Amino acid sequence: MTLTERPEPSTDAVHPLDPLFHPRSTAIVGVSSRPQAGQTSFLGAFLEQGYHERHDLYPVNPKITEAGGLKAYPSVLDCPDPVDHVISQVPADAVLSLADQCIQKGVRSVHLFTAGFSETGDPERTALEFEVRDRLRAAGIRMLGPNCMGLYVPAEGISFSKGFPREPGNVFVLSQSGANTGEIVRGLSRRGVRFSKAVSFGNGADLDCEDFFDYAAADPETEVVTAYIEGVKNGRAVFEALKRCAAVKPTIILKGGRSAAGARAATSHTGSLAGSLDVFEALCRQTGAIRAHNMDELHDLVIAATTSLRRARGRGVGLVSAGGGFVVLAADAISDEGLDTPNLPEETQERLRAYVPVAGTIIRNPVDAVGSLIRRGRSEQMKEFLSIIGQAEPIDLVFMTVPWDSSAAAGMGDNADEDEPEPGSLSAAQQVARDAATDYAELQESGRVPFVAIQLDRPRRGAFADTSRAFLDEAYNRGVAVYPTVARAARAVGRILEWRARREGLPDIL
Protein backbone atom coordinates (compact mmCIF):
# COMPACT_ATOMS: atom_id res chain seq x y z
CA MET A 1 0.00 0.00 0.00
CA THR A 2 1.39 3.42 -0.96
CA LEU A 3 1.07 6.60 1.08
CA THR A 4 -1.24 8.06 -1.58
CA GLU A 5 -3.81 5.36 -0.95
CA ARG A 6 -6.22 5.82 1.92
CA PRO A 7 -5.97 2.98 4.43
CA GLU A 8 -9.31 1.97 5.86
CA PRO A 9 -9.84 1.40 9.57
CA SER A 10 -11.20 -1.93 10.79
CA THR A 11 -14.60 -2.67 9.25
CA ASP A 12 -15.72 -4.97 12.04
CA ALA A 13 -19.00 -3.87 13.64
CA VAL A 14 -17.33 -4.09 17.06
CA HIS A 15 -13.60 -3.56 17.46
CA PRO A 16 -11.87 -6.33 19.45
CA LEU A 17 -10.87 -3.78 22.11
CA ASP A 18 -14.35 -2.34 22.50
CA PRO A 19 -15.15 -4.43 25.61
CA LEU A 20 -12.12 -2.91 27.35
CA PHE A 21 -13.60 0.58 27.00
CA HIS A 22 -17.21 -0.46 27.67
CA PRO A 23 -17.20 -3.01 30.51
CA ARG A 24 -20.56 -4.04 31.96
CA SER A 25 -19.00 -4.31 35.42
CA THR A 26 -15.67 -3.60 37.12
CA ALA A 27 -13.92 -5.04 40.17
CA ILE A 28 -11.23 -2.96 41.89
CA VAL A 29 -8.95 -5.37 43.74
CA GLY A 30 -6.92 -4.12 46.65
CA VAL A 31 -9.02 -1.14 47.70
CA SER A 32 -7.88 0.44 50.93
CA SER A 33 -9.34 -0.76 54.23
CA ARG A 34 -9.37 2.80 55.57
CA PRO A 35 -12.83 4.34 56.12
CA GLN A 36 -12.13 7.09 53.55
CA ALA A 37 -11.24 4.55 50.83
CA GLY A 38 -14.16 5.65 48.71
CA GLN A 39 -12.61 9.07 48.36
CA THR A 40 -9.23 7.98 47.05
CA SER A 41 -7.60 6.25 44.11
CA PHE A 42 -9.63 4.36 41.51
CA LEU A 43 -12.69 3.79 43.66
CA GLY A 44 -13.06 7.49 44.43
CA ALA A 45 -12.59 8.40 40.76
CA PHE A 46 -15.19 5.86 39.60
CA LEU A 47 -17.67 7.08 42.21
CA GLU A 48 -17.12 10.72 41.24
CA GLN A 49 -17.72 9.86 37.58
CA GLY A 50 -20.90 7.97 38.45
CA TYR A 51 -19.80 4.59 37.09
CA HIS A 52 -21.79 2.82 39.84
CA GLU A 53 -24.95 4.58 38.65
CA ARG A 54 -24.68 2.85 35.26
CA HIS A 55 -22.78 -0.37 35.92
CA ASP A 56 -21.93 -2.76 38.73
CA LEU A 57 -18.84 -1.74 40.71
CA TYR A 58 -17.21 -4.20 43.11
CA PRO A 59 -14.57 -3.16 45.67
CA VAL A 60 -12.44 -6.18 46.58
CA ASN A 61 -10.61 -6.58 49.91
CA PRO A 62 -11.00 -9.60 52.25
CA LYS A 63 -10.53 -7.38 55.32
CA ILE A 64 -13.59 -5.14 54.82
CA THR A 65 -17.28 -5.47 54.01
CA GLU A 66 -17.88 -1.96 52.66
CA ALA A 67 -15.97 0.73 50.76
CA GLY A 68 -17.22 4.04 49.47
CA GLY A 69 -20.80 3.08 50.33
CA LEU A 70 -20.58 -0.09 48.23
CA LYS A 71 -20.52 -3.70 49.39
CA ALA A 72 -16.96 -5.09 49.35
CA TYR A 73 -16.09 -8.67 48.40
CA PRO A 74 -13.29 -10.96 49.64
CA SER A 75 -12.09 -11.87 46.13
CA VAL A 76 -12.93 -11.59 42.45
CA LEU A 77 -14.50 -15.05 42.63
CA ASP A 78 -16.97 -13.79 45.26
CA CYS A 79 -18.24 -10.92 43.09
CA PRO A 80 -21.59 -11.41 41.31
CA ASP A 81 -21.42 -12.36 37.64
CA PRO A 82 -20.37 -10.98 35.25
CA VAL A 83 -17.09 -9.25 36.03
CA ASP A 84 -15.85 -7.82 32.75
CA HIS A 85 -12.93 -5.69 33.90
CA VAL A 86 -10.54 -5.97 36.85
CA ILE A 87 -8.22 -3.26 38.18
CA SER A 88 -5.29 -4.59 40.20
CA GLN A 89 -3.88 -2.56 43.08
CA VAL A 90 -2.26 -5.58 44.76
CA PRO A 91 1.53 -6.07 45.01
CA ALA A 92 3.36 -7.66 42.09
CA ASP A 93 3.89 -10.91 44.00
CA ALA A 94 0.11 -11.37 44.29
CA VAL A 95 -0.68 -10.77 40.61
CA LEU A 96 -0.30 -14.38 39.40
CA SER A 97 -2.88 -15.54 41.93
CA LEU A 98 -5.19 -12.72 40.84
CA ALA A 99 -4.71 -13.71 37.20
CA ASP A 100 -5.85 -17.25 38.02
CA GLN A 101 -8.98 -15.88 39.70
CA CYS A 102 -9.73 -13.71 36.65
CA ILE A 103 -9.38 -16.71 34.35
CA GLN A 104 -11.72 -18.78 36.53
CA LYS A 105 -14.23 -15.91 36.69
CA GLY A 106 -14.31 -15.35 32.93
CA VAL A 107 -13.04 -11.76 33.09
CA ARG A 108 -12.52 -10.03 29.73
CA SER A 109 -9.77 -7.51 30.61
CA VAL A 110 -7.32 -6.80 33.41
CA HIS A 111 -5.64 -3.48 34.18
CA LEU A 112 -2.45 -3.81 36.21
CA PHE A 113 -1.92 -0.54 38.04
CA THR A 114 0.59 -2.67 39.94
CA ALA A 115 4.23 -1.76 39.26
CA GLY A 116 7.47 -3.63 39.97
CA PHE A 117 7.86 -5.58 36.73
CA SER A 118 10.09 -5.09 33.67
CA GLU A 119 10.57 -1.38 34.33
CA THR A 120 12.79 -2.35 37.28
CA GLY A 121 15.31 -3.96 34.93
CA ASP A 122 15.32 -7.09 37.11
CA PRO A 123 15.25 -10.31 34.99
CA GLU A 124 13.01 -12.14 37.45
CA ARG A 125 10.51 -9.28 37.52
CA THR A 126 10.56 -9.11 33.74
CA ALA A 127 9.91 -12.86 33.54
CA LEU A 128 6.99 -12.45 35.96
CA GLU A 129 5.46 -9.76 33.73
CA PHE A 130 5.61 -12.08 30.72
CA GLU A 131 4.24 -15.02 32.70
CA VAL A 132 1.21 -13.01 33.81
CA ARG A 133 0.66 -11.73 30.28
CA ASP A 134 0.95 -15.18 28.70
CA ARG A 135 -1.35 -16.79 31.24
CA LEU A 136 -4.06 -14.16 30.70
CA ARG A 137 -3.58 -14.10 26.92
CA ALA A 138 -3.97 -17.89 26.69
CA ALA A 139 -7.36 -17.51 28.38
CA GLY A 140 -8.44 -14.77 25.95
CA ILE A 141 -8.05 -11.98 28.54
CA ARG A 142 -6.44 -8.71 27.43
CA MET A 143 -4.02 -7.01 29.82
CA LEU A 144 -3.46 -3.27 30.18
CA GLY A 145 -0.11 -2.39 31.75
CA PRO A 146 1.47 -3.21 34.08
CA ASN A 147 2.71 -0.05 35.74
CA CYS A 148 0.02 2.27 34.35
CA MET A 149 -2.94 4.41 35.37
CA GLY A 150 -5.28 2.78 32.86
CA LEU A 151 -8.46 4.23 31.42
CA TYR A 152 -10.54 7.39 31.35
CA VAL A 153 -13.82 6.91 29.51
CA PRO A 154 -16.24 9.65 30.61
CA ALA A 155 -19.18 8.26 28.63
CA GLU A 156 -18.96 5.13 30.81
CA GLY A 157 -17.99 6.81 34.09
CA ILE A 158 -14.49 5.28 34.07
CA SER A 159 -11.57 7.32 35.39
CA PHE A 160 -8.24 6.85 37.14
CA SER A 161 -8.25 10.28 38.80
CA LYS A 162 -10.72 12.56 40.48
CA GLY A 163 -11.39 15.96 38.96
CA PHE A 164 -11.62 14.87 35.33
CA PRO A 165 -14.63 16.20 33.36
CA ARG A 166 -17.71 13.98 33.31
CA GLU A 167 -18.79 15.20 29.86
CA PRO A 168 -17.51 13.12 26.94
CA GLY A 169 -15.89 14.69 23.88
CA ASN A 170 -14.02 13.81 20.70
CA VAL A 171 -10.29 13.66 21.62
CA PHE A 172 -8.51 10.34 22.22
CA VAL A 173 -5.40 10.46 24.45
CA LEU A 174 -2.81 7.69 24.38
CA SER A 175 0.20 7.78 26.69
CA GLN A 176 2.85 5.50 28.13
CA SER A 177 2.98 7.78 31.15
CA GLY A 178 0.16 8.05 33.65
CA ALA A 179 1.37 11.44 34.87
CA ASN A 180 1.46 12.82 31.32
CA THR A 181 -1.98 11.37 30.61
CA GLY A 182 -3.28 13.32 33.56
CA GLU A 183 -1.46 16.48 32.50
CA ILE A 184 -2.94 16.29 29.00
CA VAL A 185 -6.47 15.70 30.28
CA ARG A 186 -6.33 18.38 32.96
CA GLY A 187 -4.52 20.97 30.85
CA LEU A 188 -6.72 20.60 27.80
CA SER A 189 -9.94 20.34 29.80
CA ARG A 190 -9.18 23.78 31.29
CA ARG A 191 -9.16 25.06 27.70
CA GLY A 192 -12.53 23.51 26.93
CA VAL A 193 -11.49 20.19 25.36
CA ARG A 194 -13.44 17.04 26.22
CA PHE A 195 -12.37 13.46 25.62
CA SER A 196 -13.70 10.27 24.09
CA LYS A 197 -11.11 8.11 25.84
CA ALA A 198 -7.70 8.36 27.47
CA VAL A 199 -5.34 5.42 27.93
CA SER A 200 -2.21 5.14 30.05
CA PHE A 201 -0.63 1.82 29.03
CA GLY A 202 2.69 1.79 30.91
CA ASN A 203 4.94 -1.15 30.07
CA GLY A 204 2.56 -2.33 27.33
CA ALA A 205 3.29 -6.02 27.93
CA ASP A 206 0.16 -7.10 26.06
CA LEU A 207 -1.75 -4.11 24.70
CA ASP A 208 0.72 -1.62 23.24
CA CYS A 209 0.49 1.65 21.34
CA GLU A 210 -0.21 0.00 17.97
CA ASP A 211 -3.34 -1.65 19.41
CA PHE A 212 -4.69 1.68 20.59
CA PHE A 213 -3.87 3.55 17.37
CA ASP A 214 -5.85 0.86 15.54
CA TYR A 215 -8.75 1.27 17.95
CA ALA A 216 -8.73 5.08 17.77
CA ALA A 217 -8.82 4.95 13.97
CA ALA A 218 -12.05 2.95 14.08
CA ASP A 219 -13.67 4.58 17.12
CA PRO A 220 -16.75 6.57 16.01
CA GLU A 221 -16.55 8.73 19.15
CA THR A 222 -13.01 9.95 18.34
CA GLU A 223 -12.19 12.73 15.87
CA VAL A 224 -8.68 13.77 16.99
CA VAL A 225 -5.93 11.54 18.43
CA THR A 226 -2.98 12.65 20.53
CA ALA A 227 -0.24 10.51 22.03
CA TYR A 228 2.80 10.61 24.29
CA ILE A 229 5.25 7.85 23.32
CA GLU A 230 8.60 7.01 24.93
CA GLY A 231 9.58 4.02 22.79
CA VAL A 232 8.13 1.24 20.66
CA LYS A 233 8.78 -2.49 20.60
CA ASN A 234 7.33 -3.49 17.24
CA GLY A 235 8.23 -0.76 14.77
CA ARG A 236 6.44 -2.25 11.77
CA ALA A 237 3.19 -2.79 13.69
CA VAL A 238 3.32 0.78 15.04
CA PHE A 239 4.01 2.16 11.57
CA GLU A 240 1.02 0.36 10.03
CA ALA A 241 -1.37 1.22 12.85
CA LEU A 242 -0.28 4.86 12.98
CA LYS A 243 -0.62 5.14 9.21
CA ARG A 244 -4.20 3.82 9.40
CA CYS A 245 -5.03 6.25 12.20
CA ALA A 246 -3.33 9.36 10.78
CA ALA A 247 -4.92 8.81 7.36
CA VAL A 248 -8.42 9.30 8.74
CA LYS A 249 -7.97 11.46 11.86
CA PRO A 250 -5.54 14.23 12.86
CA THR A 251 -2.94 12.43 15.00
CA ILE A 252 -0.56 14.46 17.16
CA ILE A 253 2.41 12.75 18.81
CA LEU A 254 4.92 13.88 21.43
CA LYS A 255 8.10 11.82 21.69
CA GLY A 256 9.67 11.45 25.14
CA GLY A 257 13.31 10.49 25.63
CA ARG A 258 14.80 12.80 22.97
CA SER A 259 17.95 13.47 24.97
CA ALA A 260 20.38 10.98 26.48
CA ALA A 261 19.09 11.84 29.95
CA GLY A 262 15.49 11.53 28.79
CA ALA A 263 16.20 8.16 27.18
CA ARG A 264 17.67 6.87 30.46
CA ALA A 265 14.63 8.13 32.34
CA ALA A 266 12.28 6.43 29.85
CA THR A 267 14.02 3.09 30.40
CA SER A 268 13.59 3.42 34.16
CA HIS A 269 10.02 4.71 33.80
CA THR A 270 8.34 2.16 31.53
CA GLY A 271 11.19 -0.09 30.45
CA SER A 272 11.12 1.53 27.01
CA LEU A 273 14.07 1.89 24.68
CA ALA A 274 13.59 5.45 23.49
CA GLY A 275 15.10 4.98 20.02
CA SER A 276 16.33 7.52 17.49
CA LEU A 277 14.60 10.88 17.21
CA ASP A 278 15.40 10.93 13.48
CA VAL A 279 13.61 7.61 13.06
CA PHE A 280 10.63 8.92 15.00
CA GLU A 281 10.52 12.08 12.88
CA ALA A 282 10.55 9.91 9.76
CA LEU A 283 7.75 7.78 11.22
CA CYS A 284 5.54 10.85 11.66
CA ARG A 285 6.43 12.21 8.22
CA GLN A 286 5.73 8.93 6.40
CA THR A 287 2.49 8.17 8.22
CA GLY A 288 1.03 11.68 8.06
CA ALA A 289 1.06 12.28 11.83
CA ILE A 290 1.98 15.62 13.43
CA ARG A 291 4.96 15.62 15.76
CA ALA A 292 4.72 17.96 18.77
CA HIS A 293 8.06 19.14 20.16
CA ASN A 294 6.90 19.63 23.77
CA MET A 295 3.81 19.36 25.94
CA ASP A 296 2.67 22.96 25.36
CA GLU A 297 2.82 22.37 21.63
CA LEU A 298 0.83 19.14 21.96
CA HIS A 299 -1.90 21.07 23.78
CA ASP A 300 -1.83 23.90 21.25
CA LEU A 301 -2.07 21.55 18.26
CA VAL A 302 -5.08 19.80 19.79
CA ILE A 303 -6.76 23.20 20.16
CA ALA A 304 -5.98 23.96 16.53
CA ALA A 305 -7.31 20.61 15.32
CA THR A 306 -10.58 20.88 17.27
CA THR A 307 -11.52 24.48 16.48
CA SER A 308 -11.98 26.59 13.36
CA LEU A 309 -8.23 27.20 13.30
CA ARG A 310 -7.98 23.93 11.38
CA ARG A 311 -9.45 25.87 8.42
CA ALA A 312 -6.38 28.14 8.18
CA ARG A 313 -5.02 27.97 4.62
CA GLY A 314 -2.48 30.75 4.40
CA ARG A 315 0.13 32.73 6.33
CA GLY A 316 -1.36 36.23 6.29
CA VAL A 317 -2.31 37.26 9.85
CA GLY A 318 -4.42 40.25 10.75
CA LEU A 319 -3.20 41.23 14.23
CA VAL A 320 -5.59 43.37 16.27
CA SER A 321 -4.70 44.56 19.76
CA ALA A 322 -4.12 47.56 21.98
CA GLY A 323 -0.69 48.85 22.88
CA GLY A 324 1.93 49.68 20.28
CA GLY A 325 4.74 47.92 22.12
CA PHE A 326 2.71 44.75 22.43
CA VAL A 327 1.88 44.58 18.72
CA VAL A 328 5.53 45.16 17.78
CA LEU A 329 6.65 42.11 19.77
CA ALA A 330 3.62 40.13 18.62
CA ALA A 331 4.43 40.88 14.98
CA ASP A 332 7.97 39.63 15.60
CA ALA A 333 6.60 36.39 17.11
CA ILE A 334 4.36 35.89 14.08
CA SER A 335 7.28 36.43 11.71
CA ASP A 336 9.44 33.99 13.70
CA GLU A 337 7.01 31.20 12.80
CA GLY A 338 7.09 31.92 9.07
CA LEU A 339 3.81 33.84 9.06
CA ASP A 340 3.25 37.42 7.89
CA THR A 341 1.32 40.55 8.89
CA PRO A 342 0.73 42.03 5.42
CA ASN A 343 -0.29 45.66 4.99
CA LEU A 344 -4.01 46.06 4.68
CA PRO A 345 -5.19 47.49 1.33
CA GLU A 346 -5.80 51.25 1.30
CA GLU A 347 -9.49 50.64 0.74
CA THR A 348 -9.63 48.56 3.92
CA GLN A 349 -7.76 51.22 5.88
CA GLU A 350 -10.23 53.86 4.72
CA ARG A 351 -13.12 51.75 6.00
CA LEU A 352 -11.38 51.28 9.36
CA ARG A 353 -10.81 55.04 9.80
CA ALA A 354 -14.55 55.50 10.08
CA TYR A 355 -14.45 53.63 13.40
CA VAL A 356 -11.38 55.05 15.14
CA PRO A 357 -9.59 58.39 15.37
CA VAL A 358 -6.43 58.58 13.32
CA ALA A 359 -4.25 59.94 16.14
CA GLY A 360 -2.72 57.27 18.36
CA THR A 361 -3.80 54.36 16.19
CA ILE A 362 -2.17 52.01 13.71
CA ILE A 363 -4.47 50.55 11.08
CA ARG A 364 -2.10 49.22 8.44
CA ASN A 365 -1.53 45.85 10.21
CA PRO A 366 -0.78 45.17 12.94
CA VAL A 367 -3.81 47.16 14.05
CA ASP A 368 -3.38 49.05 17.31
CA ALA A 369 -6.82 50.60 17.60
CA VAL A 370 -8.73 48.44 20.05
CA GLY A 371 -8.19 50.73 23.01
CA SER A 372 -10.24 53.57 21.58
CA LEU A 373 -13.11 51.24 20.75
CA ILE A 374 -13.07 49.81 24.27
CA ARG A 375 -12.97 53.21 25.94
CA ARG A 376 -15.96 54.30 23.89
CA GLY A 377 -17.86 51.10 24.74
CA ARG A 378 -18.50 50.38 21.07
CA SER A 379 -18.80 46.57 21.13
CA GLU A 380 -21.03 46.32 18.06
CA GLN A 381 -18.67 48.55 16.13
CA MET A 382 -15.78 46.39 17.33
CA LYS A 383 -17.44 43.44 15.62
CA GLU A 384 -17.86 45.43 12.41
CA PHE A 385 -14.25 46.60 12.66
CA LEU A 386 -12.99 43.02 12.93
CA SER A 387 -15.22 41.91 10.07
CA ILE A 388 -13.62 44.47 7.76
CA ILE A 389 -10.14 43.16 8.61
CA GLY A 390 -11.23 39.55 8.08
CA GLN A 391 -12.56 40.45 4.62
CA ALA A 392 -9.28 41.97 3.44
CA GLU A 393 -7.74 40.00 0.58
CA PRO A 394 -4.26 39.31 2.06
CA ILE A 395 -5.66 38.12 5.43
CA ASP A 396 -5.96 34.37 6.04
CA LEU A 397 -6.76 34.55 9.76
CA VAL A 398 -7.20 37.16 12.48
CA PHE A 399 -5.47 37.24 15.89
CA MET A 400 -7.40 39.36 18.40
CA THR A 401 -6.42 40.05 22.01
CA VAL A 402 -9.49 39.90 24.22
CA PRO A 403 -10.75 43.31 25.39
CA TRP A 404 -10.24 42.71 29.13
CA ASP A 405 -6.52 42.13 28.57
CA SER A 406 -6.15 45.71 27.33
CA SER A 407 -4.99 48.52 29.59
CA ALA A 408 -7.93 50.47 28.17
CA ALA A 409 -10.20 48.00 29.92
CA ALA A 410 -8.39 47.90 33.28
CA GLY A 411 -10.77 46.72 35.97
CA MET A 412 -13.29 45.33 33.52
CA GLY A 413 -14.46 42.12 35.15
CA ASP A 414 -12.51 42.77 38.35
CA ASN A 415 -14.66 45.58 39.68
CA ALA A 416 -15.05 45.35 43.42
CA ASP A 417 -18.18 47.52 43.27
CA GLU A 418 -20.00 45.25 40.86
CA ASP A 419 -23.07 43.63 42.42
CA GLU A 420 -22.87 39.91 43.00
CA PRO A 421 -24.87 38.03 40.35
CA GLU A 422 -27.80 35.88 41.31
CA PRO A 423 -26.93 32.18 41.77
CA GLY A 424 -26.79 30.50 38.38
CA SER A 425 -26.62 33.82 36.51
CA LEU A 426 -23.72 35.67 34.91
CA SER A 427 -22.16 38.87 36.16
CA ALA A 428 -22.10 41.84 33.81
CA ALA A 429 -18.41 41.21 33.07
CA GLN A 430 -19.01 37.54 32.42
CA GLN A 431 -21.80 38.41 30.03
CA VAL A 432 -19.44 40.78 28.19
CA ALA A 433 -16.97 37.92 27.88
CA ARG A 434 -19.61 35.48 26.61
CA ASP A 435 -20.84 38.09 24.13
CA ALA A 436 -17.29 38.64 22.85
CA ALA A 437 -16.87 34.90 22.30
CA THR A 438 -20.17 34.83 20.45
CA ASP A 439 -19.07 37.75 18.27
CA TYR A 440 -15.85 35.98 17.27
CA ALA A 441 -17.75 32.79 16.53
CA GLU A 442 -20.28 34.59 14.35
CA LEU A 443 -17.52 36.44 12.50
CA GLN A 444 -15.78 33.25 11.49
CA GLU A 445 -19.03 31.41 10.77
CA SER A 446 -20.16 34.13 8.36
CA GLY A 447 -16.74 34.95 6.92
CA ARG A 448 -13.92 33.16 5.19
CA VAL A 449 -11.18 33.20 7.86
CA PRO A 450 -10.72 31.83 11.38
CA PHE A 451 -10.59 34.26 14.32
CA VAL A 452 -8.09 33.39 17.06
CA ALA A 453 -8.47 34.91 20.52
CA ILE A 454 -5.37 35.75 22.57
CA GLN A 455 -6.20 35.69 26.28
CA LEU A 456 -2.90 36.47 27.94
CA ASP A 457 -1.48 34.02 30.45
CA ARG A 458 -1.49 36.15 33.60
CA PRO A 459 -2.69 35.76 37.21
CA ARG A 460 -6.42 36.35 37.51
CA ARG A 461 -8.42 36.70 40.70
CA GLY A 462 -12.04 36.89 41.70
CA ALA A 463 -14.45 38.18 39.09
CA PHE A 464 -11.63 38.64 36.59
CA ALA A 465 -10.91 34.90 36.75
CA ASP A 466 -14.63 34.16 36.29
CA THR A 467 -14.71 36.49 33.28
CA SER A 468 -11.77 34.71 31.67
CA ARG A 469 -13.30 31.30 32.37
CA ALA A 470 -16.67 32.34 30.90
CA PHE A 471 -14.97 33.55 27.74
CA LEU A 472 -12.80 30.46 27.37
CA ASP A 473 -15.69 28.04 27.78
CA GLU A 474 -17.99 29.86 25.37
CA ALA A 475 -15.24 30.43 22.80
CA TYR A 476 -14.13 26.80 22.61
CA ASN A 477 -17.71 25.53 22.51
CA ARG A 478 -18.32 27.80 19.52
CA GLY A 479 -15.15 26.67 17.71
CA VAL A 480 -12.96 29.69 18.50
CA ALA A 481 -9.32 28.86 19.27
CA VAL A 482 -7.89 30.60 22.36
CA TYR A 483 -4.16 30.84 23.10
CA PRO A 484 -2.23 32.35 26.02
CA THR A 485 0.31 34.12 23.80
CA VAL A 486 0.62 35.29 20.21
CA ALA A 487 3.80 33.23 19.84
CA ARG A 488 2.03 29.98 20.75
CA ALA A 489 -0.88 30.75 18.44
CA ALA A 490 1.50 31.51 15.58
CA ARG A 491 3.49 28.36 16.26
CA ALA A 492 0.31 26.24 16.12
CA VAL A 493 -0.73 27.82 12.82
CA GLY A 494 2.72 27.29 11.32
CA ARG A 495 2.77 23.64 12.36
CA ILE A 496 -0.72 22.99 10.97
CA LEU A 497 0.20 24.56 7.62
CA GLU A 498 3.47 22.61 7.52
CA TRP A 499 1.66 19.36 8.34
CA ARG A 500 -1.00 19.96 5.70
CA ALA A 501 1.69 20.55 3.05
CA ARG A 502 3.44 17.31 4.01
CA ARG A 503 0.20 15.38 3.57
CA GLU A 504 -0.01 16.13 -0.15
CA GLY A 505 -1.66 13.13 -1.79
CA LEU A 506 -3.42 12.08 1.42
CA PRO A 507 -7.01 12.97 2.32
CA ASP A 508 -7.54 16.44 3.78
CA ILE A 509 -8.85 15.66 7.25
CA LEU A 510 -8.79 19.19 8.69
Structure commentary:
With 510 residues, this protein is of the alpha/beta class. It has three domains: 18-144, NAD(P)-binding Rossmann-like Domain (Rossmann fold), CATH 3.40.50; 150-308, Rossmann fold (3-Layer(aba) Sandwich), CATH 3.40.50; 310-502, Succinyl-CoA synthetase domains (Rossmann fold, 3-Layer(aba) Sandwich), CATH 3.40.50. Helices cover 40% and strands 15% of the residues. It has 18 helices and 18 strands. It has helices at residues 18-21, 41-49, 51-54, 95-105, 123-138, 178-189, 209-218, 235-248, 260-270, 277-287, 295-305, 324-336, 346-353, 370-375, 379-391, 428-446, 462-477, 486-502; strands at residues 25-29, 56-60, 66-67, 70-71, 85-88, 109-112, 142-144, 150-152, 168-175, 195-200, 224-229, 251-255, 290-292, 317-321, 367-368, 397-401, 451-454, 481-483. The strands form four sheets. The chain has a six-stranded mixed β-sheet, sandwiched between helices. A five-stranded parallel β-sheet has the order 2-1-5-6-7. Strand 9, helix 6 (178-189) and strand 10 form a beta-alpha-beta unit. The relative contact order is 0.09.
